[in-house]
């Protein structure tokens, strides 16, 4: 087994040489303009040391990776009652979520598909203003990452909001089914803004430590969440974290992880490491091509699959 | 942490006291007639010792649990080419598989849904007679379980065949899409018969050792399959092993496992144990109520979730 | 064959005696409060005489019947180019339209399902204000019915708008697919208001004359639309006019007709009569129970089925 | 209005000059080998005279057009009880019927989609042998067409049977849902054979007379079916007769008609004519390109739309 520092630098070098890099998301100009050559990686090991390579300090739009943190927050607020509004099953739906929503009468299959994350945002909003809810989300991220510089990229949020008609359809549909309690516009405001949070791999790997290490906060001490809840969020990342490529990612990489269309992936090796990778080129399922490839290498070289040695 | 022998006896005692036991499968008389009071458990630990309690030596129809073994065999025969015919994604479909099959043009989403397992049976059949194919499946089971008494319950197989029109629909549909190479009747013959294999928890836990212990055969020595393949099969069990309750099982139990409508579940704790439980009462998703409950207790008491301590 | 005056009074009497009346729409208070005992009928024959019975002069919310008139207007504005944005096939979908919309990439199957009518409203809006568009719709109705008193029930429109999240979902989805050119809110404003038009059976039967009589305006003279277009709108009413009960209505009644959840139905017997019936109790498909029954009697007694004598 | 004899010859001449002819069905060699240049037309008017042009005496495989006759027969046998097993709504499903069948629990939406016609064949079989059932179907055709030479093309039937896995899937699914009472193989035998009946346009137009003329047999005298039933079958042809192109055909042509993938169409103008056209090239929905075009011309020139003058 290699040491983590060599690992991240080797992988960054190998990824730099890859030619197949996928396609950068193009639905808003802020994402479309990102340089496809970027690749970053950061690993925080069990000893708390952080190893960063490539563009591991470059900020990117975390997009759906934010859903891991809003889920954590919503569970803290409403507990298991959340599961009456959102399921825990993979969506398994190549033709996407609004169909599922109609069949299952407004209950999104899991908190990581867009409809589910919108319901989660509604649970966080809970009658407050979007500003209060977003402040809470950011404070949570500052706390778990030990980094108060993390912020929302407001240009991204604006673009999301200006073009997010499909998400508006989902939110209105949830509301029609009685599964949204706050005004549609306010919930969407929270959702679009938390997806627009900008982070680096270093920050993201730091933020994921509580999931990798039994719910504990490695530096502040004490628990962010119970170890039971950490395990469950990890299970959801494994089964639902990569859209309709979740099964394949589990098969190839074998590590709980959540991806976003900004090209970032947060991966959690229980007891061993919190890992963040980033590269903006995506595959057909919307997952980072080099990010997935890098995590597959990490899994093999460190023998970190949760499915066996 | 408790010792395994106490564990299995404690759990068998607790399960005997449970009142909520679900509903026994009723689509064929051989299953409908099974006593709902039954519960068995067997655990083979890393030291090779087997711990059995309750009705752990009672034979039951393994049904879909057999798909783990036919998948292993088919991968041995055709390798990764199998994945051109079968996907690796959770089906995520409450209204079942023939819909998915049509949308995805005859490619079953994974090898554990019926359509996928029928395609796997076709890969094993490969131009031979059903008798030859079934002989091969049984010999594989005898080998991995160190038990030559394992056999097919022919009354179950006959009943399955006489009533299996939905599976016949799936097989014909696969054939219409060019994803079945042998005659429909022969493939269904193999499928119905391997689902009708009768095993006890003890035999099933023995048979699962190669998946728990890196592909190795603990007693014969050597490898049944590579450790890489064992991990991948475990990943498939985790994401797809409990029909449309797979996400929930991962969330609550956190151990790769495959269930069958006979009430059996094979669970694999990488590096630590191969576990079989059985109780015929099923929940709405077709998974054993007491079997799932028992595995949840095992996961908690032994701290065996793959998603963290 | 009976004379029309006896016909309408006989039928009104028979409907008054019926006990099975269906269920009044309850999604907004203005509809929920309508007296289920109501039944009205009006027939305008080829000679231009109008025969009215029962509550044939009571105003009701025409709801989806308005889609016949907005379709006529939109075809007048954009011609057959409309068919690039909306299909002409029955929806045949018991689980409703948003599913279809996703499968067919934002092209509603026909102009009478909600999604299709929203696209039609968008074609009428065409950059103007909702007020201008609604003025145009009302002027058209005043013209074809020879009745300037027809107006929008603004209480109904407000209630529709306050609870119309499912339609907002459809509109946003259309916009996401590029099949809505005006702002979602403005299009919905037009849609909700034209559905809230209040008319009596007498007014509605008058308004339908142009469809019954080859596109001609019986009193003003000249053509409202070409006879070709009138035939085509009639064909759409026959195949798509009763939601997922269209086939059954064609089978039982055999007359082109468009129903609305307010309990009104406009029926067109080519060359013979324009008929309006109203009774607020609906069947499971959302069509007026007594309205359908009355039209079935009209069809039989007058031998007015378009499918034979 | 032109006389019928000029009409059929004019149209045959115009169709011969058309270049866009669609694609001949290719799923069995017997259909794939048909000359795409073929076009035939036959019209039987109210006076009983028959007008034939082009290849109007060439035999072709009537395929789904046969479903009109089996429906008539099944209604004669079981009456309206048939409608408990088969619906009367357009399928409206571009992705085909097995999906619908699953959603609606084994009740085909109408008797003209494959699943519905298989259920109809089951109602005709009714415990007899396929030979008896097929004899009954042929005798019915001989009677209504006054032509005892009509027969089954056994080469076509054999090919259908050898490749009809999708229909076998449907039949097995119906059986799984309890909507098939005879053995799957026997029902499919009847179905494949009645689809393989060979007829000319002349024979087909003769066979359709009872539907055009109020259920009467023009030469034998008396009723084949009641006029009520004739109207209802015509309504079903209008709403469901052209697969997922039924709405469009009603819109463009406005005449009840049933098409088949052999390129034949039977069209019924109530009180005026029974028409058969044939040309093997199909459009994307599986309907004859020239056949539809010819009927559109007939409708316009004769003013025969049922939706107005």
From TrEMBL, chains A, B, C, D:
Molecular functions per Gene Ontology: glutaminase activity
Catalysis: reaction(s): L-glutamine + H2O = L-glutamate + NH4(+)
Sorted UniProt keywords: Acetylation, Hydrolase
Any one GO BP annotation for this protein: L-glutamine catabolic process
Keyword Membrane set for record: no
E.C. no: 3.5.1.2
UniProt key word Hydrolase: yes
Family: Belongs to the glutaminase family.
Summary of subunit composition and partner proteins: Homotetramer.
This protein's name: Glutaminase
């Amino acid at each position: 087994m290699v040491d983590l520092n060599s690992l991240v630098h080797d992988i960054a070098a190998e990824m730099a040489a890859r030619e197949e890099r996928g396609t950068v998301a193009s639905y808003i100009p802020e994402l479309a303009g990102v340089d496809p050559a970027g690749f970053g990686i950061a690993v925080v090991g069990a000893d708390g040391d952080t190893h960063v390579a490539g563009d591991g300090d470059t900020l990117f739009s975390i997009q759906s990776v934010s859903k891991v943190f809003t889920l954590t927050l919503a569970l803290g607020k409403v507990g298991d009652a959340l599961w009456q509004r959102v399921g825990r099953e993979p969506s398994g739906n190549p033709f996407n979520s609004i169909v599922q929503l109609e069949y299952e009468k407004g209950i999104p299959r899991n908190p990581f598909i867009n409809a589910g994350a919108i319901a989660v945002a509604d649970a966080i909003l809970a009658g407050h203003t979007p500003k209060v809810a977003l402040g809470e989300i950011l404070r949570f991220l500052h706390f778990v990452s030990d980094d108060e510089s993390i912020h929302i990229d407001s240009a991204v949020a604006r673009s999301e909001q200006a073009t997010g008609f499909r998400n508006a359809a989902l939110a209105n549909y949830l509301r029609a089914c009685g599964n949204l309690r706050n005004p549609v516009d306010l919930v969407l405001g929270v959702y679009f803004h938390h997806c627009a949070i900008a982070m680096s791999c270093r920050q993201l790997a730091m933020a994921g430590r509580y999931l990798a290490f039994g719910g504990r906060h490695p530096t502040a001490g004490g628990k962010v969440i119970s170890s039971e809840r950490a395990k469950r969020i990890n299970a959801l990342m494994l089964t639902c974290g990569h859209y309709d490529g979740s099964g394949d990612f589990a098969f190839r990489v074998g590590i709980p992880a959540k991806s976003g269309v900004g090209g970032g992936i947060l991966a959690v090796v229980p007891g061993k490491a919190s890992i963040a990778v980033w590269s903006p080129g995506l595959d057909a399922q919307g997952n980072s091509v080099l990010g997935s490839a890098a995590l597959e290498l990490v899994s093999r070289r460190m023998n970190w699959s949760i499915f066996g040695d």
